[in-house]
Amino acid sequence: MARPWRVAIVGGGVTGLAAAVRLRDRAPAGTEVTVYEQSDLLGGKLRTGELAGQPVEFGAESFLMRDPAGGESAAVTLVRRLGLADSIVHPTVGQAALVVDGGLRPVPGGTLVGVPGDLEKVAAVARPAADADRDAGRPLLGPDADMAVGALVRERFGDEVVDRLVDPMLGGVYAGRADGLSLVTTMPALARAARVEHTLVGAVRAAQAAAPRTPGAPVFGTLAGGLSTLVEAAARESGATIRRDAAVRELHRTSTGWRLTVGPTREPDDGSRSRRGGRRAELELSEVEADAVLLAVPARPAARLLAGPAPEVAATVGGLDYASVALVTLALPAPELPELSGFLAPATEGLLIKAATFFTTKWGHLRRADGLALLRASVGRYGEETSLQLTDDHLVVTVHRELSKVLGAPLPAPVARHVQRWGGALPQYTPGHGARVAAVRAGLRAAHPTLALAGAGYDGVGIPVCVRSGEAAAEEIITALGGSAA
After folding, report:
1. How far apart are CA 18 and CA 42, in angstroms?
2. Alpha carbons 344 and 166: distance in angstroms, whole number
3. Pick from 125, 283, 320, 362: CA 20 to 30 A from residue 355's CA?
């Protein structure tokens, strides 16, 4: 009788947990799945906390309801699989604003991540360059080409559209700048249209037509109990063995599979390190065997583990850079807030804040009878990490002052606050990212088919993308093991 498969998943974020659920559903009965998470918390950037007696997200806030083709997103499908569909709630206020010349102006409609399909609709926020978007008789983008979003939009619409619209919208998602982010990775629908269309207006309209939205259908959703309920349910339903505070330090190929060296995240402080011979002491490190390994961790720790079995892949993967951010959440007693979901702040406005969300306005299920409001501001842009060296107290004071300035009136003093720092949280996809990832995966399939990569560092940010990435990697492992078993 064949021994059950043993699969190791390195990383207990939503990507790794989605992969574990997929293995539970699709792998042969008896498959042993172990998830190794180096921290004591599962979920990665999904983390529901509490402030002023109310649940609040300290990480990702919501997920897209639809996929790029218009079908149900992978996040919604997973939520249904986990029996949480009845907990899905949607924003009750969807209108956001942009900070322009120190004041708030509504985000104009008809754009694709800030890139307009109708130049007249954005005129109140940014003045497009006159007659720059001309038909030169060829597609905007070659068959295999990629370029920075900012370069394309500046050439066709001018600087104001980039600086006031595209840059803050991309910055709100990636904490990066439009001039450094890949068109193919961050705006794939627009890239596909640009390989056919001769003008940027035409490409935006074609991309929008390819994925029509049903009028009135919600774009975003979250869970009434907080996104940590998704994490908990995925861990439970996967049936996987979950090892917390378990850092995978080394990965080696064996004749039958893989050997992982696993140890605690923190060194023991009882003197055992020196008494038992250092880091490889029995109580500190252990070695485990697996038939397949799925790396669902950021690029740099993945590169460290890949350095032995796949050094060339490791060099490429390790080149991916990340932006760090801090999320400052304030509980304010009965402030006067506009009926907005929040706002985005272009870098040209000179603010520390790059985005703000009015939680208790945006999400009706969070509104309180006593009028207490929860506001969250995001701080930190790629290349401006010095702003994150401020103390928590300094960040809170600065965010409170800037919120008051943008809203045009002093806000009441917070009755509670929380600062969540996410170091190296958001991948920065430079042009050519997609091709590099494709080459990495092709190399792994050829040399190590039972070793897979998944997560935001490779496939994009957002809960649906991470879920889909984890599930696809799980399917690859199932195929690879099935093929070797045959």
Report:
1. 12
2. 11
3. 320
Element (H, E) at 15: helix 14-26
pLDDT at 483: 59
Rounded Cα distance, 135 and 202, in Å: 10
Copy the structure tokens of residue 307: 């350095």
Query: Over the stretch 52-88, which tens digit does the pLDDT of each residue have?
Result: 999 999 999 999 999 988 889 999 999 999 999 999 9
Euclidean distance between CA atoms 411 and 24, whole angstroms: 50
Low-confidence residues of the chain: pLDDT under 70: 1, 265-283, 483-486
- For tokens 């529901």, name the residue: 48
Beta-sheet pairing, 32-36 with 241-243: parallel
User: What is the residue whose two structure tokens read 């390994």?
Assistant: 293
The reported pLDDT for the residue numbered 280 is 44
User: Token pair for residue 308?
Assistant: 């032995």
Write out the two tokens for 392.
Answer: 């928590």
Kindly give, in sequence order, each residue whose CB lies less than 8 Å from that of residue 214, ignoring residues fewer than 6 positions away.
none
Residue 131: what pLDDT? 87
Q: What is the DSSP string of 244-309?
A: SSEEEEEEEE-SSSEEEEEEESS--SSSHHHHTTGGG-TTT-EEEEESEEEE-S-HHHHHHHHTTT
Residues near 406 by beta carbon (within 8 Å), at least 6 away in sequence = 99, 102, 103, 104, 343, 345, 351, 353, 356
In angstroms, the CA 376 to CA 327 distance is 7
Which DSSP string corresponds to 55-121? EEESS---EESB-TTSSB-HHHHHHHHTT-GGGEE--S---EEEEETTEEEEPPSSEETTEESSGGG
Q: What is the pLDDT of residues 169-185, one digit of tens each?
A: 999 999 999 999 999 99
Q: Could you give the strand order of the β-sheet that contains 451-453, starting from the edge strand earlier in sequence?
A: 241-243, 32-36, 6-10, 292-295, 451-453
- pTM here is 0.93
